Amino acid sequence: MKELFEAIRAGDLPKIDALVAADPSLAVFAAAIQGDVARLEVLAAANRSLLHARSSDGWTPLHLASYFGKVEAVRFLLNKGADVNARSGNAMANTPIHAAAAGRAPEVIKLLADYGANVNARQQGGWTAIHAAAQSGDLETAKALVAAGADVAARAENNQCPLDLALTGGQQAMVEYLEANGAKL
Predict the structure, then answer these.
(1) 69 shares its domain with 134
(2) Which of 52, 82, 108 finishes a domain?
């Protein structure tokens, strides 16, 4: 899967084609990463189980489309029945909302929330999506999460809240935003 990510990031179409030819199940992951809705439609029509497939490192197509901010691919996958709260099959045990927060994709956050995503879902370590936004200082993602009902006071297993992460990271605008929305230490 790592090799596929690298080929996609590099825009190396011959390499992508070769990887998919060697392992046809990679096609759905490549289409999700690229936001290729037309390809997703063809693949889903041929085999709907691909919507729930897991990459070798545990991600669903919805996780990948969410992380890479591919709004229309996310919409397509959700409309075809992808689980908005699917857990990754790896140690992170995260959901697409976590992937969208990590990928700094506020439009995807809004869409996932509209489809019923649990914006307060906890991944490994008790982290929520608002923790990721606070740590990175991504104000737009934080705003999307808060608008969808994210708990700005959520504490991870190590007792850190989003405000702790924003303060530690020197994210002053995030600190002010979280405090304005009720966060306290």
Answers:
(1) no
(2) 108
Host domain of residue 172? 119-185
The pLDDT tens digits of the residues spanning 51-89 come to 999 988 899 999 999 999 999 999 999 999 999 999 999
Smallest Cα–Cα separation from 28: which of 1, 2, 6, 7?
Answer: 1
Q: Give how far the C-alpha of residue 65 lies from the chain's centroid of Cα atoms, to the nearest Å.
A: 7
Question: What pLDDT digit, counting tens, does each position of 42-53 carry?
Answer: 999 999 999 999
Q: What helix, strand, coil percent values describe the chain, rounded to 5?
A: 60, 0, 40
In this structure, are residues 150 and 179 in contact, taking their beta carbons and an 8 Å threshold?
no
Helices (H) and strands (E) in the chain — how many of each? Answer: 12, 0
Q: Render 119-175 in DSSP notation, one character per residue.
A: TT---GGG--HHHHHHHHT-HHHHHHHHHTT--TT---TTS--HHHHHHHTT-HHHH
